[in-house]
Amino acid sequence: MTALVSWCFRRAGVVIVLWLVALGGLVSAAVHTGAAFRDTVDLPAADSTAAAKLLRTTGAAERVVVRSPDGSIDSGAGRARLDALAARLAALPHVVAVDPPPGLLSADRRTAVLTVRFDAPAADLGQETADALAATVRDAGGLTAGASGELAAMTAAAPDLGNAGIGLLAAAVVLLVAFGSVTCVLLPILTAAVSVGSALAVVTLLSHVMTMPKISTEIAALLGLGVGVDYALFVLTRYRQGRRDGAEPGAALAVAAATSGRSVVFAGVTVCVSLAGMVTIGLAFLDGIAVAAAISVLLTGFAALTLLPALLRPVARRMSLRPDSRAAGWARLARSVTARPGPYTFAALLVVAVLALPMTGLRLGVPDAALDPPGSITRTAAELLEEGFGPGADAPLLVVGTGGGESVGALREALLASADVGPPTALPGGGWLLTVIPRTGPGDPATGELLASTRVMARIIGSPDAHVGGIVAARADFSAAITARLPLFLATVVGISVLLLAWVFRSVLIPLTAAVMNLLTAAATTGAVVFAFGGPIEPYLPVFLFAGLFGLSMDYEVFLIAGIQEAWRRHGDTRTAIVDGVAATGRTITAAALIMALVFVSFAFVDARVVREAGVGLTVAVLLDAVVVRCVLVPAVMARLGAANWWFPRRKAAVAGELVGSTR
């Protein structure tokens, strides 16, 4: 570690050129090849997947919903506009049929639904066909129009990372105020920007060889920018401390590499291990998010140990080294906490409990299209369908099967008691289809109950091989698949993180208490998201939030405990070590958390709901973790545990001796 950092410092020009060449080459390759993001979720054992396979022979069927702003749509000017739109839809590539206008008509005769049938499934038609459909729907010639279906769902806007610049600007202000040095502002931000830019290019290239959802780039940018500034700041802070102690730039950087650099490596590995836990869910969709985020974290950590020392070389001797006048304040806080650990522990747990309380109302599920970005064709379709045909019009259940005979009619009669059901439709190869329209909205729990009862009746009354598909069914199966694997995911992430902390700090209690505190933070974070957004919450969001915050919280845990352990090894007094460690790291941890929170909160204003949820959740997580957990709860619990913190099988006794410069 020290050798790598020192070499990068001595060969600054070479390292900077190599990074810039890598960035330019990766970005050029990504621009040349383009992106191939896919939001498909593969659930081979799901009932909705079996239904989709039976329907695949019919090709994609998209519903185009159209409303006339000034009178009836089945006569006069409205009908003329509808006929023109139907003709343009029929002329699209791969379209084999369009329902004759006016198609399905609402009671007020102002809203019509045209079914557009394609010659292949949506997954085979690709993004180009989806974009062509969206362009035609948006140009509806004076009509308000939207589209509902798998192709329409593929037309979500491309990730917009413009808000990240606002977050970085705010982070720069915090760095300037906290450290009073332009160098401390520019170096971490430049390091994070170059490494995250490279990571996003790598993610774009990887989208051609593995399933990468569109939000992968925003997730990678969100985590990469946050931890990238933090990692660079950790190394830079320790370097400045060495320079204030009188060391030459090279020697100060070597000490920083051996201490903070080691912490950066471990923190980065822990984040990646936590993200890798998402692989236990067994969904390629989540694997893509995990890989994208891990690549971003790894590159930012590597940049903090290579690019940052190179950028530091030209300004090493001119950097402002004003003393840390606020260390005494952090020392006073730490002395107060260690003197009265009980009240501080109670107060910290009370804050966590209040934030976690809304978690009792957590309901997992994929939000319906009515929560899509304003102006999207899917949201427009959902609003028009609800207005013209009722809340369940955008949540059809597609009951399909083979055989059955007269039992299909009996099934329809049974389902009519709780939903609106169209007449049976014959499918190629002897299959049949019943379209069930719920009387409640897609996100209503009653619709979920209807789905469950429909599946039971389809097999008992219809035929043993009957299956229920459609968007609502696929979303329910997606939620169920993730929920079923959550225990394995949680055990994997927590277990591996505990083992890593135990190996690094040679302690049994420190990693166990860290795991418990991270679980408390996870509960508080989930509660904050539920309070801010209500429900349902995307089923994969708690998985990502838990993996992300469990890894990110380890950044502060490692930085704080490393400082405390370093002091303890010098004099063997746990309470004094806690005071010294908090005094040495408190300002950096809180400043780093504020910087990370500013980057995260900038993503809370994008169009994609799940990214907004992630931005809010991670903002709450890092602030709570840094301010309440690491600076209050951890010192209080460690003070209560005393010497037991450092127990580890076969550990040698600490060498006693007062720490020089102790802040007791």
From TrEMBL:
The chain crosses the membrane at residues 161-179, 186-207, 219-236, 264-285, 291-312, 344-366, 486-505, 512-534, 540-564, 584-606, 618-643. It comes from the Bacteria. It is a multi-pass membrane protein. The keyword Lipid metabolism does not apply. InterPro entries: MMPL_dom, Mycobact_MmpL, SSD. SUPFAM superfamilies: Multidrug efflux transporter AcrB transmembrane domain. Keywords: Cell membrane, Membrane, Transmembrane, Transmembrane helix. It holds the Pfam family MMPL. It is found in: Cell membrane. Residues 189-314 form the SSD domain. Its main location: membrane. The keyword Nucleus does not apply. PANTHER family: MEMBRANE PROTEIN MJ1562-RELATED, MEMBRANE PROTEIN SCO6666-RELATED. Belongs to the resistance-nodulation-cell division (RND) (TC 2.A.6) family. MmpL subfamily. This is MMPL family transporter. It comes from Amycolatopsis plumensis.
